[in-house]
Amino acid sequence: xxxxxxxxxxxxxxxxxxxxxxxxxxxxxxxxxxxxxxxxxxxxxxxxxxxxxxxxxxxxxxxxxxxxxxxxxxxxxxxxxxxxxxxxxxxxxxxxxxxxxxxxxxxxxxxxxxxxxxxxxxxxxxxxxxxxxxxxxxxxxxxxxxxxxxxxxxxxxxxxxxxxxxxxxxxxxxxxxxxxxxxxxxxxxxxxxxxxxxxxxxxxxxxxxxxxxxxxxxxxxxxxxxxxxxxxxxxxxxxxxxxxxxxxxxxxxxxxxxxxxxxxxxxxxxxxxxxxxxxxxxxxxxxx
Length: 288
Prior knowledge:
The chain contains eleven helices and eleven strands. The protein is α/β, with parallel strands linked by helices.
């Protein structure tokens, strides 16, 4: 019944059976079958269905916190105590720059100290990973610190601060970052992402109206677009572009520098579990 409870939590979070199926790798009919099984076991309907949407009814609202508690307890039962060795699986969510940045070294440390543990890395953008931690679908995530308060069930620790810089094609001259932003086409860091919201706030504070260019979320892809001469951009110092000779100019923001903060997020109830504690240690003392 744990599987059905997890599916129930995913449907509640995403709002439709189709979206839940896409998230957990099931067809809509399979999701419906699991929910019917759960409703039959409980003797009550849990959702009001209208078209494609699925909204919790009164019974579903009552069951929701208990379902979360049961899933959390089950996951804790499957975790070894500190003195019995490490085994099992650790599911780690990570944004793209973390996968190519600090995560590999941390996984080397994890493999050394817990060779029987299998680490599974789940890629995603920060908002998606945050939702997955909240729903108990992944154990923890390294993502951009959200610009809003988290639910009280979640724990957040900042592990790194990455300064934003302006990057420009080599053929564009000038060292005045604000003037370059006013005069050049702008390759925008997706304004709906956590990091992109910081860029939007910076531009608003500096009263800069940028020239239309293009918009995307991956930092390394943004750098490549700037290399191709498509405009200037504001990006954090993070990603594979720092490890190669990127054909761009970097203009520091000086006193106007703002930062993207990377954070480790997990459920409060899981912070002291052995594998989670070990992974935090593997991120290196200088970060936590």
